[in-house]
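Fresh eyes needed here. Have a critical look at this protein's tokenised backbone.
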Amino acid sequence: MNDSCDQTCSSCSEECVERKEPRTDFSEKPHELSSIKKVIGVISGKGGVGKSIVTSMIAVTMNRLGYNTAILDADITGPSIPKAFGLHGKVSGNESALYPVKSKTGIDVMSINLLLPNDTDPVVWRGPLIGNTVKQFWTNVVWSDVDYLFLDMPPGTGDVALTVFQSVAVDGIIIVTSPQELVSMIVSKAVKMAEMMNIPIIGLVENMSYFVCPDNNKEYKVFGESHIEEIAGKHNLKVLAKIPIDPSLSTACDTGQIELFSGDWLKPVAKYLESNWR
């Protein structure tokens, strides 16, 4: 119990011995036919930092190492995973289960865009409905023989993220950031949310970290100096990777060919997961 305790255990995240109310367990079990070894959430404190690109690239990199990988696209109102993988088919299923769509290299993908009649149709839903949809992607979808299931989380620390963290057995999270100082503050919010939810933080990935000029091979900090080391030190976290601004990567996503990207920036992340999160 800390000095500021007001005896309201229902709204407290502390695990003190004086706790008077047991925690409510909101966790949901995956489909009975699912087999998932590790669930890794990929989050960002705000939008626009390339979280979905990083999620896709990590899944592809782990797949190249021989692991069966899958992506649950939990960003219901801004789903971009199917486009990055060039998926146009629709999810199949029956009364008892849904089955994810497989990418060209065998990565299982589940996204709201694989259920909509048109991938440009907006999802104009309120928070509870969005949260329930994400839970159904966990409980109603058969994730068969998956070594690593990556959750592409919605940006921010709001209602949907809370629902996912309470419902899904997340083993750890990777936080994606970019160099701007404003983002540093937002990342701290994401870190603190993870700590409140007692979810281990695997580490940080900085996207759009720098740009290598093809004319002189020099690095330029387009968005200013990085603050990721400072954030990592403050929260005792590991910096897993720094990804440059690369037009070829953007092109790969826009054309649905993320599985063909040649950069190895996320290989250290994959090796770290392989060694510490199996």
Q: What stands out?
A: Helices lie at 51-64, 81-85, 127-139, 159-167, 181-196, 228-235, 247-254, 267-276.
